[in-house]
């Protein structure tokens, strides 16, 4: 178990780096930097499925009444969402400070009502916590029913099929269900549940896919990296489109899960061959508050950092500079998270 925790912390740290990095390069990639665009497309092919997969990997049944479980999930998932949305709202009231010219502050304030639909638009990366909230409530009842390998393996294609039916042509399916699109991310929650169940299967029956000796892990890393590159190239026929789970944009029904699972397993293997480091461990252990912090960087701080790279013509130098800016952003978050953990841990999901 100790080995699992060590590689999991590193894997979550790598995943958080990809979250911050993907947000940083997004606009430049779609504005014409082809190197950044292709890096972005590969990141988005798997980085959010990976977090759902890892959550499922560590699933454990809690023998408590469902009502208490619901309250526990509200405290650990939704309270942080409300906190990080509250942090973002004052910043949206002065968009000119951040170089944002296409936003009316009053409109942003009005959008807080969308929280009633489970949509944290003021701090959009928190959608993951809302979706995880819905997924964990379902998984807590579903997984105990799948009490053998056959049931688990049969459940995967069934859940994926339901997820595809619910999210393909999202507006029409939402209208059929009588809700707004992705109300409390129940539609995308089915897709997230597929990856959550995949993580649970990996923990129970996927030893061959988990890290082994360093040499074996290096071979698996090479295999899953190649599989990601190949599968990702078929996810969207349009080379400028990308996966975006928050919008239920998945691409090809077969290549999307293959790319997502290959990328997730690639990250697992990479985490096992990297040496353990205090910074990586700390980032991995604080992935929840970093989700909320990433929303502040996405909307407000990245536009202030990007001009430092805007005049560089070499796309590879821009890529290197983006890596440096991402590491700087994560480092800036560390003292903020340390203060939150010390003085208001309940606001970032730490109630015990």
Shape summary: globular
How many H/I helical runs? 14
Helix share bin: 55-70%
**Tally of structural domains:** 1
Largest sheet: none
Give the N-to-C terminal Cα separation. Answer: 22 Å
Q: Stretches where pLDDT falls below 50 for ≥5 residues?
A: none
Q: Using only CA atoms, what is the Rg?
A: 20 Å
Topology as a string of helices (H) and strands (E)? HHHHHHHHHHHHHH
* Nearest-integer average pLDDT: 94
Quote the beta fraction. under 5%
Task: Give a verbal description of the structure.
There is one protein chain. With 352 residues, the protein is mainly α. It has one domain. The chain is built from 14 helices and no strands. α1 crosses α12 and α13 crosses α14. It is globular, with a radius of gyration of 20 Å. 42% of the residues are buried. The mean pLDDT is 94.
Give the tags.
mainly alpha; 352 residues; single chain
Q: Helices and strands in order, then pairings?
A:
Blueprint: H1 2-30, H2 34-44, H3 47-57, H4 66-92, H5 105-110, H6 127-142, H7 149-167, H8 170-177, H9 186-205, H10 214-235, H11 255-273, H12 278-285, H13 287-305, H14 315-343
Helix pairs in contact: 1-2, 1-3, 1-11, 1-12, 1-13, 1-14, 3-9, 3-11, 4-6, 4-13, 6-9, 7-9, 10-11, 13-14
């Amino acid at each position: 178990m100790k080995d699992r925790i060590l590689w999991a912390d590193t894997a979550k740290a790598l995943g958080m780096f990809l979250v911050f990095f993907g947000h940083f390069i997004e606009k430049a990639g779609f504005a014409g930097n082809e190197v950044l665009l292709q890096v972005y497309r590969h990141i988005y092919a798997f980085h959010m499925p990976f977090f759902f997969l890892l959550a499922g990997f560590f699933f454990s049944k809690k023998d408590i009444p469902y009502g208490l479980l619901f309250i526990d999930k509200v405290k650990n998932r939704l309270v942080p969402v409300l906190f990080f949305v509250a942090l973002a709202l004052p910043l949206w009231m002065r968009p000119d400070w951040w170089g944002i010219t296409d936003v009316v502050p009053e409109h942003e304030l009005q959008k807080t009502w969308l929280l009633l639909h489970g949509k944290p638009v003021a701090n959009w990366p928190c959608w993951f916590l809302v979706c995880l909230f819905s997924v964990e409530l379902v998984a807590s009842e579903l997984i105990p029913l799948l009490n053998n390998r056959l049931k688990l393996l049969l459940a995967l294609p069934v859940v994926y099929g339901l997820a595809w039916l619910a999210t393909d042509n999202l507006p029409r399916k939402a209208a059929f269900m009588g809700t707004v699109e992705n109300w409390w991310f129940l539609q995308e929650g089915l897709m997230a549940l597929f990856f959550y169940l995949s993580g649970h299967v990996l923990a129970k029956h996927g030893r061959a896919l988990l890290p082994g000796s360093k040499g074996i892990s290096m071979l698996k890393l090479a295999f899953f990296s190649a599989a990601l590159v190949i599968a990702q190239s078929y996810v969207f026929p349009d080379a400028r489109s990308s996966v975006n789970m928050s919008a239920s944009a998945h691409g090809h029904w077969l290549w999307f899960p293959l790319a997502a699972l290959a990328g997730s397993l690639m990250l697992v293997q990479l985490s096992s061959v990297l040496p353990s480091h205090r910074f990586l461990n700390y980032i991995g252990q604080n992935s929840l508050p970093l989700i909320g912090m990433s929303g502040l960087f996405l909307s407000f701080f990245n536009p202030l950092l990007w001009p430092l790279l805007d005049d560089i013509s070499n796309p590879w130098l821009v890529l290197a500079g983006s890596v440096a800016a991402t590491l700087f952003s994560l480092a800036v978050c560390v003292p903020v998270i340390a203060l939150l953990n010390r003085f208001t841990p309940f606001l970032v999901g730490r109630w015990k």
